[in-house]
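ok trying this again, last paste got cut off
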Amino acid sequence: MDSIEVSTVVHLPPEEVYEFLLDFPRYAEYSKHLREVDQRGDGGTGTNYDLTFAWWRLSYTAVSEVTDIEPPQRIDWRLVKDLDARGHWQVDPEPEAAPEGVEEATRVRLYVEFAPESADERLVDLPRFVSLDWLIDRVKPKVKSEAERVIHRIVTDLEGESREVTLTIHAAPDSV
């Protein structure tokens, strides 16, 4: 299994950050390749999301499911078809990281674990002479850059203004 884990500090209380992260349909606003999110359920455990991605000449809809929530700390999810992948958002208070003039700070961590070898070649209609292995090699770095982009945009939206965000990369896929 490959994994990506990135985190950053948000200058808000954990409860506010957690509620923001529960709004999965909003994620399409943050990602360069996520075009649409359709929700089936109330947002809690068991809710499914159809996540339509587009990159290069390809389009794919992943179906994810919220597998567990632990307010205000954690949201677990997994893909339910085509690819073995799962992950979570972790929200932890980190008061010592609050800059002067800011009352609270929270560390937000995105963890994604996926098995590229679990992808079926029939999952995407590939152009002639393009192999699934070639596609996987190109997508791995995109997963990392998208995770970074999403976290930066979430911080901007949460705090109401853009600032330089320090991302800590705890793990990255092989070959990135």
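PB: full thing came through this time. Residues 15 and 72 are 5 Å apart (CA to CA).
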